[in-house]
Each structure stands twice: as structure tokens, then as C-alpha cells.
From TrEMBL:
Its EC number is 4.2.3.3. SMART domains: MGS. This is Methylglyoxal synthase. CDD domains: MGS. PANTHER family: METHYLGLYOXAL SYNTHASE. SUPFAM superfamilies: Methylglyoxal synthase-like. Pfam families: MGS. The active site is at D61 (proton donor/acceptor).
Amino acid sequence: MLSIALIAHDRKKDEMVNFVTAYEHVFEGHKLYATGTTGTRIMANTKLNIHRFMSGPLGGDQQIGALVAENEMDLIIFLRDPLMAQPHEPDIIALLRLCDVQGIPCATNIATAELLVRALDRGDFAWRELVHKYKPGIE
């Protein structure tokens, strides 16, 4: 079971809900996290159980970032709106930087999300389970 975070900016929430609904069978076997409204919308449209953090601008991105910093997150799907300025842009950049530092796959658009979820479905994330097995303090 992998830990997966789902984040979507306001104009990308419908796209995220549609995406997760289409791949619900893949996501159901994993531990899911999301920022506030995104998690609420996904749960309203699927049977998935999601641990919800605060809304992104209120600290949800940082809460997910804390899990990334501890190498407790395995995959992030963050559908960003590249055409809209975000008031919490420094938090977003910090989260993406942490993903790069820890080597956590992070999709920021639907095309990359599709590739990562198909890889997840095929079992191509087995290397993350090795990280958990050999790193003390990670379940």
C-alpha cells in the first residue's frame, strides 16, 4: 500500500474528480491524502476514503510537504492551474522542491498523472516499497 496525495487548484478540481473516478479501482488499494476541498469533492463522487488536510492556501500543501520531507509520501498528483496566480505560490514551490529532493514522483498535469497511475496499476512502484523496507521509521 502506497501513500498518495491528491491536490488540485480550483479550476482543476473537476478534472481531478473525473480522473480519480476513472481510476478509482487503482486508488482504492492505497492510503490517500488530499487538501481540503479536493478531498471532499473526490469522496462525494467515489467510495474512496481520504485523509483530508487543510485547504492548500491555509497550510494543506505544507502538511503534505511535511510527509514528503519525512519520505512518507510515495506519489503526488497536483493538478496545478498554470494560468492563475496563486497567493500561496511559495508553499507550492516548496512542495515541488521537496518532491525533487526526496525523489517523489509528482504529476502537475493530467498527462503525467495518467502515466504515473497506469504505472501504479502495473506495479511499477515496487521500488517505493523497498524504500519503506530499508529506511528506518517508514511504514
